[in-house]
């Protein structure tokens, strides 16, 4: 007699899976930034003309906004990575991962405000020139 196939249940998203996906995405974004940074730094070797040409591009308002995004990316990746380390090595770390996530993201949020507000004010200043 044939058995009934198991019922496939839809995947339920939870904090751990969202944090895992965001950690991978921010890691890829940081690799992309590193490649872009190497490309910009390479133009230093081309003399002042090459460097000034690249600097005129990366000082556009869109890049100033991307710098704020870079701050968000670095803060999330760093503090979520710290949370992962604590969860892995602490006693009952896995049981407290949601609380740790909240604490780490609160610290990252405060640091974002400290760094992001001046960056955004600079962005507004550049737009008003």
Description:
This protein is mostly helical. The protein has a domain at 68-129. The chain is 78% helix and 0% strand. It has 4 helices and no strands. Helix 3 runs antiparallel to helix 4. The protein is elongated. The termini are far apart. The model has no long low-confidence stretch (mean pLDDT 90).
List the helices and strands and how they pair.
Blueprint: H1 15-42, H2 47-58, H3 61-89, H4 97-127
Helix pairs in contact: 1-3, 3-4
Characterize this entry briefly.
It is built from four helices and no strands. The protein has helices spanning 15-42, 47-58, 61-89, 97-127.
Essential attributes:
129 residues, mainly alpha, 78% helix, 0% strand, elongated
